[in-house]
What does this fold into?
Amino acid sequence: MKALIAIAALAAAPAQAEEISAATIAQGRQIYASTCAACHGADLQGQPDWKRRLVTGRMPAPPHDVSGHTWHHSDRDLFNLTKFGVAAVMGQGYESDMPGFAGKLSDAEIRAVLDYIESTWPARARDAQARITAADAAAQP
Amino acid sequence: MTFSGFPALSRRRLLVGLGAAALGSGGPPGLMRAVAGTPSGRPAGTVTALAFDQGKLLAAAAGLWISGDAGASFAPHGPGPGAAVTALATHPDLAGVIYAATLAGLARSDDAGLTWHSAGPGLPASPLDAVAIAAHDPQTVYVAVRGDGLWQSSDGARSWDFAMDRPLADQVEVDVQALASVGSLSGMGGYWVFAGTTRGVSKVPDCFCRWSSLEDTGAMQVSGDEAGAARIDPARRLPHLAVVSLALAPSVPEVLFAGLPSGIWKTTDGGSSWAAVGPAMAAPILAVDPLDPDHVVAADAGGALLSSRDGGATWADLTAA
It folds into this structure.
């Protein structure tokens, strides 16, 4: 059922604007600090030793800076992971501490957070992530 | 760990000593004669790893063995890296470079296996069960550290970083016994790394965000992909049994071979569906010639040594000659 919710979200995921305003990035930074930083780190650094499982068997919160793998995911995937949570998007019994923020953050607020995160990446990572996003969009029916 | 040197030993004594050390006291009768150069034409002892380098077939058994005639005959090729070899890795763009995962760490040869040096600075001091060279970048190397996880080097094994914990199977971490870099796009700006585990095959994108099962398809396995996986005939899925070997030619990433307790399995669609090929073998070790993706060689602990020149459709017994 959760996976079906995710499917519906794909169609509803907003398209990324061509130009991101400084105000949007500032808004995203503020929301990140209040909503995301507790797990992903104030400086986007993730939880310590984030590549090794917690005692619960779940993976720690990864960094969102360029040392992590966030920039390897398309905008569509990042939006859905944030809105619906990792477990709902992955399905198949995958367990994660990352909740969905649907009902807590609007789509625009989620997008602002992602815009802020992406604004911190070096050009190489931003360009690579843009290519991944474009390829993902082209692959959608 | 020492992989080279031994200046005080003659070559003959070195071959005997290291061959015996690699197998311990359980080596087969005749080991020392064969390793010392008796022209048996077959690798002495159990073959624990196979690889092709520049069209020649390498076999790790008691020492290293080489075949220039596709496995019809072998000749001793030096002592190998000096510890029991669990896997070999080569790359068609790195002629003469061989990595050996061993019970004592990682070794690298730059002269087609004649001499070896340690290549694991920074790796845990634990046995390695698998090694693979990235299909798209031969300077990137992956190893599986027993009881630990995957480590990655991006500089030809001069330095290493922890990449990913071990995969989960039925909520239990399982060791990786085989690795293959599969050069098909992961959807995340990179490629896939496949891992043969004690319970089937898992895969992870080379950004190392998460392990997934082979039945998953697509980058994030969102629901539509679940439906796609469900369409796969269960009889065409790879059994969730121990996978001791994975092999493919980098130029044909959708075709992989896997060694299971029941024998050799093959996929032609990147791991979604599989079929058993060839005669029954006991957990065969496999190698595919990167210069000829239809050329597959398999060896098992029972002494079987088979070769296929047609992608696994038919097999020849190389021990029958």
Chain B touches chain A through 26 residues (CB under 8 Å). The longest helix of chain B spans residues 11-23. The two ends of chain B are 39 Å apart (CA to CA).
